[in-house]
Design brief:
two-stranded antiparallel ribbon, 322 residues
Length: 322
């Protein structure tokens, strides 16, 4: 049939046109081009995609808030667990590393030092771990609705940010309880937190794409995160370790690699802004400058956010298939 088939009413009047089916030797792409058909789930241009994500910012916040509230609905203590979990982690780390292994020796105000490290590293750890499941755990939503898939890992990062804001009440209470005075220097903690959030968003987007197509990654992440924790100066002072270990002194490339670790950067900057005595302690050892830490923090935030968003965007039309 070379012409469109017309359907008529009983009076013979034409009421519509149905496109003829593709010819036997015609590809679907050629058929779509012939009638101007477009793929409904095609990846839009990058600029349009960013606009679509921004247009759903209220959905991202609402989705994150609902997920945050429902997370502990089945437990008796509810949202209190958001505070108890990091506190219990700090207690365990202090007992094992601070008391039994003695990593607290020489570090001023070790309890605020440890609490800051555990809370800030946990922010990144949970963002990456939860982000890796953000696509796989929402397949029914992806297949039912058409929306930018990046909103899912972005919502996960917002969930973890909301939980951190609640935990910061405990963190600041401990810092002030140990005699730390309120100074203008503490205001720098806000940009540190913002840069870490940007890094977490980028890392969450990367892990969301990897986890969407290989669910085994979610099984490996706990081991990777535990190793990352031990390499990031969360439970010990990395400047002190570098200053006392001959192996690190004789191999500056190795110490430089540890100091460029993004998790360490944000943890250490948080300590520098909140703990004045520790900041002075590190400077006396003649270790890395604060300027270097800020340069690393800005670079990691920019690379993770831009690279992570691009990496996730490139697979937009593949999420939810199979």
């Amino acid at each position: 049939m070379s012409h469109p088939e017309r359907l008529g009413s009983q009076g013979g009047e034409s009421v519509g046109t149905i496109a003829e089916p593709p010819h036997v030797n015609e590809t679907l792409a050629a058929y779509a081009a012939r009638y101007g058909l477009k793929q409904s789930a095609a990846r839009p241009p990058l600029r349009k995609y960013i606009q679509n994500v921004w247009a759903r910012r209220n959905f991202i916040w609402a989705f994150a808030s609902a997920k945050n509230i429902s997370m502990y609905t089945e437990s008796r203590l509810g949202q209190v667990w958001q505070l108890l979990t990091p506190i219990l982690n700090v207690s365990v780390y202090y007992l094992i590393f601070g008391v039994l292994l003695g990593t607290s020796r020489g570090v001023p105000d070790f309890i605020p030092f440890l609490v800051t490290g555990v809370f800030m590293f946990g922010f990144t750890q949970r963002s990456i771990t939860s982000g890796s499941k953000s696509v796989g755990d929402n397949l029914s939503l992806i297949r039912a609705l058409h929306f930018p898939r990046a909103t899912l890992p972005l919502a996960i990062a917002v969930v973890e940010f909301q939980q951190l804001l609640l935990s910061l009440v405990v963190l600041l209470a401990i810092v002030f309880a140990w005699g730390e005075p309120i100074t203008f220097h503490m205001l720098l903690f806000v940009p540190v937190l913002a840069l870490q959030l940007l890094f977490n968003v980028g890392a969450s987007l990367v892990m969301a794409r990897l986890g969407a197509f290989n669910r085994d990654i979610t099984q490996l992440l706990p081991f990777i995160m535990r190793t990352w924790l031990y390499m990031s100066g969360v439970i010990f002072s990395l400047p002190q370790l570098i200053n006392h270990k001959a192996a690190l002194k004789d191999n500056p490339w190795l110490s430089g690699l540890l100091e460029a670790n993004p998790a360490y950067i944000y943890v250490e900057l948080s300590r520098h802004t909140l703990l004045g005595e520790y900041r002075g302690y590190v400077h006396k050892m003649g270790m890395h400058s604060t300027t270097q830490l800020w340069a690393y923090a800005l670079a990691w935030a920019a690379v993770a956010l831009i690279g992570g968003f691009w990496f996730f965007y490139r697979a937009e039309e593949r999420y939810g298939r199979g």
